[in-house]
């Protein structure tokens, strides 16, 4: 077997829905990320043998194999192929898994795992033309598929999490994101528009709030239940963004003068309860740790995607995790969650965080709709 390593990892700053990227097509946003990735790495684009792309809502401008369209827009050689996949919120992370597994198998020498989502231009559920009522009635009779927001409420109830707990976690996510703003080496400043339609360069995540009004946060109405605890403030932001990770065979990369930055210790995907649906992060974490022969205490950096505050807090409660090592630079509640891009973006952020702090081992796990989760453990080299 070959030895797959991460050579470069970038993400665009994330923009709010209707924000800086509102006039940027998703294929163009991903093309920008791909060009920036290869430019930073210094790799001849002709050496890339596949581009595996995560995109959740594959319709309209995000359809027709958006990965291949972005490859062509970015000016990569026509010989570079691409494929687009949908493992929902874990799509970008799964793209990295597939790309690195291709390297380990010896099928490729260099590949890119990436992701994109323009939630401004391609709204959620537009791929199925509506909500859950569009799904197979036989499936709906067999499985209680509910909105993720209701799942988040059930998680809060089951793990005894209050509205105050969730709001405090959300406020801390923004505080950490704002405090770390100057440290994000993974960010690739990207062109966009300001509120007046003038060109700008977005250099930081648009949704991060340096100052929060606790009274305003406490006054928000619950989003999914009249007496619920989940609000717009303690859930992930709807966002636009792209991210890309270059992986390659270690020996070949060294021969080409490239610097390996991390290797893979574990890559897993799991299925879980499709109704509670967001707590697959618990078995995914346990499985990844077992594969790597590690414990939570061995990890220097942990990314648990902040789809909802209740998911991260329940995960931490169940596993006895130290929250000081979880999402040290904030998470999706603050910086946003462009669905297909988030998995690759969190990998890029985690690698930058490990390098900034001198850490060695990092875990990334993401909850996924319909009851799944992905997890990755990387080790800096």
UniProtKB/TrEMBL annotation:
The keyword Transferase applies. SUPFAM superfamilies: Thiolase-like (SSF53901). Keywords: Acyltransferase, Transferase. Residues 5-248 form the Thiolase N-terminal domain. GO terms for molecular function: acyltransferase activity, transferring groups other than amino-acyl groups. NCBIfam families: AcCoA-C-Actrans. Belongs to the thiolase-like superfamily. Thiolase family. This is Acetyl-CoA acyltransferase.
